[in-house]
Each structure stands twice: as C-alpha cells, then as structure tokens.
Design goal:
Layout (H helix, E strand, L loop, with lengths): L12 E5 L9 H13 L3 E2 L7 H12 L6 E6 L1 H13 L2 E5 L6 H6 L4 E3 L6 E3 L2 H10 L9 E6 L7 H7 L4 E5 L13 H7 L14
Parallel strand pairs: 1-2, 1-3, 3-4, 4-7, 7-8
Antiparallel strand pairs: 5-6
Length: about 210
C-alpha cells in the first residue's frame, strides 16, 4: 500500500500580505480574515509600505503574535514577500498570482507616481525600490512549502513564468481569470487545508 502524505500541522496563525499599492483592508485580505474568524484562527493583515524592506520589517513584526507555527499568505508583491518570509523562517505559504523575481518589473516602473486608494498615500517608484527588491530576492526556494494559486490570463504578470518558478509546489491553476483573482472565495478551502484546517466550501462568501 502506498503511504499517504501526512496532513500539515495546524498553523498557529495566518499572516496575509497584500499586493503592491493595496492595503490590509483589501477584498482578498478581508476574505482571509473572515475565514480565520470563522475557524477561530489568529490573523494579521498589516498595511505594507511600498518600500519592500520596510514592508518586510512590518511583516516580520506581524508574525510575532501568531504563535510558533504561522502560515503566510500573500498576493502579487505580497506573494513575493510571503516567499521571502517562508524561506527565512521555515514556514509554509499560500501564494496568489505571486510576483516572481520582481526587480525587473519594479525597474520598468521607475518614475511612475501612485496614490493608494485605501490609505491615500502618494509615492513615486525610485531606484531604491528596485535595489531593495533585488537585495531580498531568494536565490532558491523550497517548493514543498508552497501552495500556488495562479490564473492563466494574468494581465499583469507572466503566469507561465510563475508556474515555472514554483515547479514542484502544489498548484491550483484557475482557467482565465485576472490578476486580482476574483474567484478567490472558491479556493479558500484549499488555502486553509494547506494550513491544516478544514473549511467547508461556500462557508465564506465573496467580499465586495
């Protein structure tokens, strides 16, 4: 008889990291928080700086109240940061359309100005944004840590490159879709299974 892969131990808490120019009050963050509240799991969804070293410091501090064995979930640039944390702190992670080695993407945005619709923060992309991303990018990843959720029609990132970068990880590939991953509510059971929890399908609805 073939041995079965043991179920992961229950995560002691969930850290959700939002994407670029978003916030801890984004729809995906609120969905994850709602699922955590339903399951009785500690959850942190911090607002992150557009400077990745500052964002990483915030994320690391947010791990502290989540117990000895948290799981990290992140979308887009938050997925990149989740990867950095998972590798640094020996954690599992769930990644939603993560940015893969995003220094080149940041370089293409140099000089662009942004306003955060959630926080009203105004900022421009500078060389230091690029340099900080390049400095913290992991040289390699441990694929077993990750559950990857990726769409096939990401208008912002190259989905094929994402799949290749996390080859060997557990993957759920959503046909079509978009970078914002509007179908995320349907994948919450799989996300929380990776954290060691059973969440029945349809228990958490879509957040507008």
């Amino acid at each position: 008889m073939l041995s079965q892969t043991p179920a992961p131990l229950k995560a002691s808490g969930v850290l959700y990291l939002h994407g670029f120019n978003s916030a801890g009050a984004s729809p995906k963050a609120r969905l994850v928080k709602q699922a955590c509240e339903y399951l009785g799991v500690a959850c942190e969804t911090p607002d992150l700086s557009p400077l990745v070293r500052t964002a990483l410091d915030t994320a690391q501090r947010s791990l502290e109240p989540l117990g000895p064995r948290p799981i990290v979930m992140g979308s887009s640039m938050g997925g990149f940061l989740a990867t950095v944390l998972a590798q640094q702190h020996d954690l599992r992670a769930v990644l939603i359309n993560p940015a893969v080695r995003p220094a080149a993407l940041v370089e293409s945005m140099l000089g662009q100005r942004f306003v955060n619709e959630y926080t009203s923060e105004r900022f421009s992309i500078e060389q230091r944004h690029h340099d900080e991303v390049a400095e913290i990018t992991p040289d390699q990843i441990d694929a077993w840590r990750y559950l990857l959720l990726v769409v096939t029609r990401d208008e912002t990132l190259d989905s094929a490159r994402t799949v290749a970068a996390y080859r060997g990880a557990r993957m759920l590939i959503h046909p079509g879709g978009e970078h914002g991953f509007a179908a995320l509510a349907s994948y919450l059971p799989a996300m929380f299974a990776h954290a060691g929890y059973r969440l029945e399908a349809g228990k958490i609805g879509r957040v507008a």
